[in-house]
Amino acid sequence: MYQAVFSGKLSGNGMFTKKCQNFFQERYGFKKCLLTTSGTDALEMAAMLCNLKPGDEVIVPSYTFVSTALAFLREGAKIIFADSQEHNPNLDADQLEFLITPKTKVIVPVHYAGVACDMDKIMDVANRHNILVVEDAAQAIDSYYKGRPLGSIGHLGAFSFHETKNITAGGEGGLLVINDDRFIRRSEILWEKGTNRTEYFRGEVNKYGWVDMGSSFLPAEINAAFLWAQLEHLDEIQNKRKQLWNKYYELLSNNHSANYTLPELPDYATNNAHMFYLVFNSLEERTQMIQKLKDAGYLAVFHYLSLHSSPYYKDKHNGCSLSNCDRFADCLLRLPMFYELTIEDVEKICSIIKG
User: Fold this and answer.
1) How many CB atoms within 10 Å of residue 38?
2) CA 232 to CA 239: how far, in whole Å?
3) 349 with 336: CB under 8 angstroms?
4) pLDDT score at 11
5) Cα dihedral 67→242→163→90 (10° resolution)
6) How far is residue 189's CA from residue 338's CA, in Å, rounded to a whole number?
7) pLDDT of residue 150
8) pLDDT recorded at residue 2
9) For residues 343 and 243, is the Cβ–Cβ distance under 8 A?
């Protein structure tokens, strides 16, 4: 932070922006990376790169944060909501074929809790129908699918460095990953407010100007410096989070009278310990547990409300049942998970849950 402040350059695309982008490209093999001010901005850039037209359809899981859908809605797309799997909040890839029409242009898998969707199935459907795939990897930093980093498999990927994520850029931040050469040049233009300023700085043109749509997607150097400090300790952060996650799983799996199920980790996915959650048998049981933990001084919260039944979109939804999404909305409970949490805290929380 000191270096950023006294470098004389506080605006975006300075030394720390480049250091962070290079880190992601070298560690995970991403083809091109651009830091953004938020994960939402990364998704909005991805949506712009998809070159959507009014009426084009984009398949999005209903059990996700609003940004996943909003980024594409802003481009004039029609959102087609997909259900979750029965035992996992991720998009049910086996149901994709039934949602595709001649107007389908994009599929947006969300790697919930940092656990990979079934990307082989998703990419197979997308390739057969000539559909773009944008990975919403907001929660999925340092997580893998069959040995491949999440965010590197689709045509585009979006990460979040919000304060609730494993690593943060000082409260807000994001990353757009471009894996398809077709989108590299335009991504730089969108990133630089619709100008070819990046090409100018590389000496490829002798002046720059307004050439396309765009916005101010670059984060300040202070945010990039904050993120860089986190990246320098990424393995330490991840190891601590995994210790906490494993302790939760160990203690809560040993409960013969449990009224909940534990997170499911498919054999093709790794665990980045972004979140530990339980799925209770009913809304009432979850509500009781939230209060029980609150009384003991621990904040446990539910997560998303299904987007298809939201006040803004319910009248636009086609009315088909998305029962798995609704069940997770009613029954999923997120337990405390952050770096400063201790093993002793986890033991106390588990003791309360087990009664």
Assistant:
1) 21
2) 13
3) yes
4) 67
5) 10
6) 36
7) 98
8) 52
9) yes
The predicted pLDDT at position 9 comes to: 63
What is the CA angle 205-207-208, rounded to 5? 95
Dmax over CA atoms of the chain, in Å, equals 71
pLDDT of residue 8: 59
Distances (CA, A) of 155 to 25, 80, 82, 108, 144: 15, 19, 20, 11, 16
For residue 17, give the nearest of 238, 217, 195, 272 by alpha carbon: 217
Please give the structure tokens belonging to residue 148: 């491949």
Give the burial class of 289: count Cβ atoms within 10 A of its Cβ; 0-12 exposed, 13-18 middle, 19 or more buried. buried
Q: Within 13 A of 103's CA, how many CA atoms are on the CB side?
A: 13
Task: Please report which helix (H) or strand (E) contains residue 260, including its range.
Answer: strand 260-261
Residues facing 332 on adjacent strands: 279
Digit-coded pLDDT (tens) for 174-209: 999 999 999 999 999 999 999 998 888 888 888 889
Say if CB 100 and CB 125 are below 8 A apart.
yes
pLDDT at 238: 98
Residue 78 corresponds to which tokens in the numbers above? 């029609």
Cα distance between residue 220 and residue 217, in whole Å: 10
Between CA 142 and CA 39 the distance in angstroms is 16
CB 115 within 8 A of CB 143: yes
Residue numbers of the chain with a pLDDT score lower than 50: 4-5
CB of 140 closer than 8 Å to CB of 132 = no
And the tokens for 88? 């996992």
Determine if the pTM surpasses 0.85.
yes
Which of 160, 170, 171 has the alpha carbon at shortest distance from 228?
Answer: 170
pLDDT confidence of residue 319? 65
Nearest CA to 91 out of 118, 67, 69 is that of 118
Q: Which residue blocks in 114-264 are alpha helix, DSSP H?
A: 119-129, 184-191, 197-201, 221-231, 234-253
